[in-house]
Design brief:
Two copies of one chain form a homodimer. By secondary structure, chain A is an alpha+beta fold. Chain A has a single domain, classed as Winged helix-like DNA-binding domain superfamily/Winged helix DNA-binding domain (Arc Repressor Mutant, subunit A), CATH 1.10.10.10. Chain A is built from five helices and three strands. The longest helix of chain A is centred in the C-terminal third of the chain and has 14 residues. Chains A and B meet through helix 1, helix 2 and helix 5 of A and helix 1, helix 2 and helix 5 of B. Chain A binds a DNA duplex (30 and 30 nucleotides) through helix 3 and helix 4.
Chain lengths: ~100, ~100
Amino acid sequence: MEYEEYITERQKRLARYAKAMGHPIRMYVLELLSRQSCCYSGDLTEILPIAKSTLSQHLKELKEAGLIQGEIQAPRIKYCLNWENWNEAKELFKHFMSD
Amino acid sequence: MEYEEYITERQKRLARYAKAMGHPIRMYVLELLSRQSCCYSGDLTEILPIAKSTLSQHLKELKEAGLIQGEIQAPRIKYCLNWENWNEAKELFKHFMSD
DNA sequence: ATATTTGTTCGGTAAATTACGAATAAATTG
DNA sequence: CAATTTATTCGTAATTTACCGAACAAATAT
């Protein structure tokens, strides 16, 4: 799965971010965080009709893609956007879709 | 997999488009098409180090997501962006990421 | 010290994705 | 009509994703 010479780093990063956004639940979470700056996963399990373990997996995906981050505020975890990467993603998408 | 009441139609559409963009090969194709308006899959198989059947599958995904369309120009097929949906996607992403 | 709260990780299953080569389809060229 | 060109579809295998409930970990509250 190495297209090193054909596909740019930009394209790979865009694909990575897009993949992370490619699920309704994850879009929901991202949109929430972009509006209200942070939330606890408990807030989400109360709203969304999925098992908490499933939500945890989705949050993990978003974390691994770099789009969100969790700050421990025991016994809970406060989730926020990772602004650095979020802004990079914004920039990449903006540029990509502005042609 | 029905989150009807929690997740907006916008979010679902965004997720659908994002999912289609979530692979380096597909990003490459989209970027190419957004630059040069159209191409033949033969052009792509010459460049990209993947089997033509694999490419065909990726093109099918993009088609099913509504992002591209193919016009038969026998014996080849000319691929272009589906501008209507492409513009919708642009609009959705722009709005989503502008918060 | 024990119970409670909050979330992650584990184990498992079903479905989707990615990839390839071979077979097929459809039109054109010789 | 046969051979060639072009791209899709089929058959198959490996990997990843999505989902759940149960078990676990970590801190707080009783």
